[in-house]
Amino acid sequence: MTGINKPVVVLGATGQQGGSVAAALRAGGWAVRAVVRDPSGHRARSLSASGVEIVRGDLGDPESLRAAFSDAHGVFSVQPNSGQAGADVTNEDEVRFGTTVADIAGRCGVAHLVYSSTVAAGPTPTGVAHLDTKSGIEAHVRNLNIAGTIIRPATFMEILLLPGMGLDRGHLSFLMRPDQAMQFIAVRDIGRIVAAVFDSPDRYAGRTVEIAGDTLTGNALAEHLTQASGRQISYSRLPATLLAQDEILGKTVALVDSGRLVGNADLDALRAEFPFLLRFDRWLAGHGAGLLQEALRPTDTGIALR
Ligand SMILES: NC(=O)c1ccc[n+]([C@@H]2O[C@H](COP(=O)([O-])OP(=O)(O)OC[C@H]3O[C@@H](n4cnc5c(N)ncnc54)[C@H](OP(=O)(O)O)[C@@H]3O)[C@@H](O)[C@H]2O)c1
Question: 16 CA to middle of ligand 1, Å?
């Protein structure tokens, strides 16, 4: 038990990161309040069944955030991003949502704000607008008079198993060259780390923490996927023709080559602090197993990355 009766408000709790944070906080004995757009949706109902308090709200509706934050101990802040498949937000929306959450958390006297950013964020622009949104929100959080922790997750392991990444045809295409290393994290571990951050505010307030669970080359990804699936899986970088046609994908790959997007987390230090962190093979054998089976099923979906 935490000894704190006030809830932690979790945004995006019906999504990947917020769902993982809500589960880890509940497992740690925290009271959790989820702000959802549709309380009758199946994800909201399953959150409610797990003991999460559900309140209706919207990142675009500051009054609903004020109501949700008014008696809260903490807030976990994550926003949708225009780079996600099917996202219905602009870059301006994301920045407005993220800064508004931080402002209202400050005004409501929230004791601890945890903001989830990205590994590519930093003081200089990347040139990819949907990544630079997070650098702007980070700067805003740091300038507020509130105890804040910024986490910068590496690329999610889950993204590698999206339908349409080619695994059903025995092949994975991603951003790095076959011999180039990149860091990844399991979404489950983001929640566990955020729960640890709320558990130890004195240790984490004011810090920006880059988080990852494994460092893998494209060839290593293929080896792990071959082992886990029992099928031969090969790897290549996304086709040059696609990178030439799609400006954002081309720039994203350039950020991998420049080192900006690959992640530089100190995995040994992180593992000492967060011993539960999963490597890719352990994740594939556990939480990722169902996603892998799904990804191996024949599909006519095109490449999942934009
Ligand atoms: N993929 C990666 O490798 C990676 C790495 C680092 C960072 N990120 C970042 O992670 C973020 C997305 O996190 P995620 O993957 O956890 O998101 P997700 O699974 O796509 O879920 C998005 C969540 O945001 C909620 N939401 C959307 N619009 C809202 C609004 N107007 N008001 C209230 N809630 C709203 C959704 O609720 P509904 O159920 O109502 O739709 C859902 O709970 C993005 O900013 C992305 O850039 C991704």
Answer: 7
Query: 45-49 — which CB contacts under 8 Å span 24+ positions?
Result: 47/13, 47/14, 47/19, 47/22
Ligand 1 atom closest to residue 79's alpha carbon, by position in its atom list: 45
Angle of helix 91-107 relative to helix 62-69, nearest 10 degrees, comes to: 40
Question: Which of 11, 14, 75, 216 gets mutated to test ligand 1 (max ligand atoms within 8 A of its CB)?
Answer: 14
- Could you tell me if residue 173 is inside a domain? no
Q: Is the residue at 28 inside a domain?
A: yes
- Give domain status of residue 64, yes or no: yes
User: What is the per-residue pLDDT across 221-251, written as a single tens digit (0 to 9) for each?
Assistant: 999 999 999 999 999 999 999 999 999 999 9
Dihedral sign computed on CA atoms, order 255, 17, 75, 206: negative
Q: What is the pLDDT of residues 52-107, one digit of tens each?
A: 999 999 999 999 999 999 999 999 999 999 988 888 999 999 999 999 999 999 99
In this prediction the pTM is: 0.96
How many structural domains are present in the chain? 1
> 274 pairs with which residues across the strands?
none
| Gap between the Cα atoms of 140 and 57, Å rounded | 22
Rounded to an integer, what distance in angstroms lies between the CA atom of residue 250 and that of residue 150?
Answer: 28
Distance 266 CA to ligand 1 centre (A): 26
Q: Is residue 53 one of the residues assigned to a domain?
A: yes
Q: With a 6 A CB cut-off, is 16 part of the ligand 1 pocket?
A: yes
Parent domain of 134: 8-154+187-211
CATH of the domain at 143: 3.40.50.720
Q: Kindly state the tokens that stand for 150.
A: 């910024």
**For ligand 1, mutation pick of 9, 10, 17 (most atoms within 8 Å of CB):** 17
